[in-house]
Fold:
Amino acid sequence: METTRPDTRTAGLEPMAVVSVACAVLAAAGLYLMGMAVLAVFAVGAGHMALHRIERRGRSGQLAALAGLSIGYAVGVFGLAYTVWALISLAVGPL
Structure:
């Protein structure tokens, strides 16, 4: 008698997509409250990993992964631009 295994390709939300969104939200809050965007790197990494896993395993969560990537990249670019602006203004001095 042949036993059948349940189809795991459609089983649930990819956890790395949730991690990506959580890191992106924390990165945005950290940038706003403390001027630090370090978690944006983790949001982007987790988002790319989630998209890869979703493609390979057929799980859901693509929208969450894309949201984490978008917010993570936006926070990272804004944080980098703010850092460059701050360094230039420190070098030039007050106008």
